[in-house]
Amino acid sequence: MTQQPHEIIHAHIYSAYTARCLQAVADLGIADHIDDDPLPVGELAAACGTDPDALHRVLRLLAAHDVFEQRHGGYAHTPASRLLRGDHPMSARPLARLMGLPLHWHSLAQLPHTVTTGEPGIDVLDPGGLWAYLQGHSEEAEIFNLAMTSKAAADIPAIVEAYDFTPFATIADIGGGRGHLLRAVLDSVPAAKGVLFDQPSVIDPLSFPDQPRLTPRAGDFFSAVPAADAYILMHVLHNWDDERVARILATVRDAAATGATLLVIENVLPDERPDPTALSMDVIMLALTRGRERTVGELSVLLEGAGFRLTGVTEASGSMRIAEAKAV
């Protein structure tokens, strides 16, 4: 049955409550208490210290969206709800917890201010922006880091499968965090060496005794980056406005020899069709940073301005795409 116009609007209005239920369940670790068999809601509530009726009503809503299943007087897992378990290899629990933090909800509450002024809502919470806010809120920063690791774990297998890294002798992951992507790439290309490049606060605590081909290097990608045959920028450019993206790309181009490859991996917006997930991420960037998700055309202009030529875009998973460019 076709939805009426008011039903479409109402569904989106109420969807904030569904999202909040998902985040609350993730924060409370509810999914970890359910195994293979349905668990009566009373037992589940006792196990996780919640009110049985309130928990039932929250889980009932999520079950209507195929997150958990209401069965035999209790609740069981669906493939989606299993991703909320902390021990799942592709656990989405940290990401769900992140989206429920004051960092997100308070910034989202400022969206009218953002739409009016163009200024990120996070600036109302901290004039220094997102990174300054996280430095002053260690508990939220810890969840943020766990969420980024969790999201990477879900995205990385598809990236490694989608793109052939074998032509490169040296691969530099710029702003590569704790090295999850680069480690996976090196595992898939035994002949390659890797350089993990990020801020000193990220790099200094790291060591990779089990991966001798990986070298950590600390620095600032606005100033200088190491030389390599291929450069990876995963979820980096979307954090910044066009001016700063141009500076990052120029820094990479200064280090890159002609013919070197640059891979921009993020939610590249397709020019030909809307992608709701990528567009949602774009509004998150609007609320939290001065960055944005960019179309292939917008990215191509920035690349050309820095001395790169876009040579292709490879689909990875969901809205994740790999934009390949060559230094010219």
Radius of gyration: 22 Å
Taking the sheet with the most strands, its summary is: 7 strands, mixed
Report how far the terminal alpha carbons are from each other.
Answer: 54 Å
What share of residues are in beta strands?
Answer: 15-25%
The residue-averaged pLDDT reads 94
Give the H and E element order. Answer: HEHHEEHHHHHHHEHEHEEHEHHEE
Structural class: alpha/beta
Q: How many strand elements? A: 10
**Uncertain parts:** none
Our count of helices gives 15
Anisotropy-based shape: globular
The strand order across the widest sheet is 6-5-4-7-8-10-9
Proportion of residues in helical segments:
40-55%
Description:
- The chain has 328 residues and is an alpha/beta fold.
- It has helices spanning 5-28, 41-48, 52-63, 79-82, 93-99, 102-109, 111-117, 122-125, 130-135, 138-162, 180-188, 200-203, 242-255, 276-288, 296-305; strands at 39-40, 69-71, 74-76, 170-174, 193-198, 214-218, 230-234, 261-266, 308-315, 321-327.
- Helices cover 47% and strands 15% of the residues.
- It starts with a helix and ends with a strand.
- Strands 6-5-4-7-8-10-9 form a 7-stranded mixed β-sheet, with helices on both faces. It has a 3-stranded antiparallel β-sheet with strand order 1-3-2.
What are the main properties of this structure?
15% strand, 328 residues, 15 helices, 10 strands, 7-stranded mixed sheet, alpha/beta
Write a concise synopsis of the structure shown:
The protein has 328 residues and is of the alpha/beta class.
Task: Produce the secondary structure layout.
Blueprint: H1 5-28, E1 39-40, H2 41-48, H3 52-63, E2 69-71, E3 74-76, H4 79-82, H5 93-99, H6 102-109, H7 111-117, H8 122-125, H9 130-135, H10 138-162, E4 170-174, H11 180-188, E5 193-198, H12 200-203, E6 214-218, E7 230-234, H13 242-255, E8 261-266, H14 276-288, H15 296-305, E9 308-315, E10 321-327
Parallel strand pairs: 4-5, 4-7, 5-6, 7-8
Antiparallel strand pairs: 1-3, 2-3, 8-10, 9-10
Helix pairs in contact: 1-3, 1-5, 2-3, 5-10, 10-11
